[in-house]
Write a structure and sequence with these properties.
It is a single chain. With about 290 residues, the protein is of the alpha/beta class. It is built from ten helices and eleven strands. The chain has a seven-stranded parallel sheet with strand order 3-2-1-4-5-6-10, with helices on both faces. Strand 4, helix 4 and strand 5 form a beta-alpha-beta unit.
């Protein structure tokens, strides 16, 4: 299969490209910069230096690659820039889908999130509604996810991978990353309200398992799928483990939780044969992170 990976040098994309190549796919990966294009080529793929906001260049790149599938892994989270990521989910997805449909691409896989569900007491599954009525800024995130997934659905077969909170190389939770900085009390660390030892529940996902799911999704039917590990957990459980793995003191445990912080179920993904190799954050946080090319 010919696969066009938008965001091939991101935390998930740079692990995804080699997996696609190993599975026998012909891959074209995008980057905005010459250095990124060189990295894509070192990963064994053809490189398209293109900005997703440049509609004409993007259309040309997709047309030239003539893919059987597009995988959308575009984010802008390195600097905790929520507005930039929202623009990618909205305008960027619009441009990518228009380029795909213009080129006759029959399948798209997009990166979504699993923490945009409406409040509840149990881990959310794919039948639960998104939290569209939430106060800002959360409401804006949920509306953006709805727009991303509805836009993607204009392609014949569209799979929305609702990832858990990503950890591993290139994420906020890597050694020395923003989550560790926040726990260490760094005043310049981005605000990470979820790093609290309370009863709010998160579902985590190692970036390598996120990449494996994107490969598997090339054979899945349309619709959203939660891609999370096997153990949704309250902050009072996972924060001390994360702190210990980073050599930091754990904050004092507190009670109470955000009503929407309920975690998510991976039952549907598992029914399709996907299994997280990092089945729980308990071992994942302390595992040796693989080197990143």
């Amino acid at each position: 299969m010919r696969v066009f990976v938008a965001g091939a040098t991101g935390a998930v994309g740079r692990l995804l490209v080699p997996l696609l190549r190993d599975a026998g796919h012909q891959v074209t990966g995008t980057s905005r910069t010459p250095a990124g294009a060189d990295r894509v080529q070192r990963l064994g793929a053809s490189a398209a230096q293109v900005d997703v906001f440049d509609r004409d260049s993007l259309h040309e790149a997709v047309k030239e690659a003539a893919p059987d599938a597009v995988i959308h892994q575009l984010t802008d989270l390195a600097e905790a820039n929520g507005e930039a990521t929202n623009r990618l989910r909205g305008e960027g997805t619009r441009n990518l889908v228009d380029a795909a449909t213009s080129a006759g691409v029959p399948r798209i896989v997009v990166q979504s999130i699993s923490w945009a569900y409406a409040p509840g007491d149990e881990p959310a599954d794919e039948t639960d509604p998104l939290d569209l009525a939430a106060a800002e800024p959360r409401g804006r995130i949920a509306v953006g996810i709805q727009a991303l997934e509805e836009t993607a659905a204009e392609v014949g077969t569209a799979v929305s991978l609702r990832y858990g909170v990503l950890y591993g190389p290139g994420t906020w939770y890597e050694p020395g990353g923003p989550a560790a900085a926040a726990l260490a009390g760094d005043p310049d660390a981005p605000f990470l309200g979820s790093v609290a030892a309370d009863d709010s529940v998160n579902s985590f996902l190692h970036v390598a398992d996120a990449a494996r799911a994107a490969v598997a999704a090339l054979d899945w039917p349309s619709g959203p799928v939660n891609i999370v590990d096997d153990e949704p957990a309250p902050g009072r459980a996972w924060v001390p483990v994360f702190a210990a793995a980073r050599g930091l003191p754990a904050p004092e445990a507190t009670s109470g939780r955000q009503a929407w912080a309920r975690g998510a179920s991976n039952r549907l993904a598992r029914s399709r044969g996907w299994r997280p190799e990092h089945s729980t954050w308990r071992s994942g946080f302390v595992a040796q992170d693989a080197p990143v090319i």
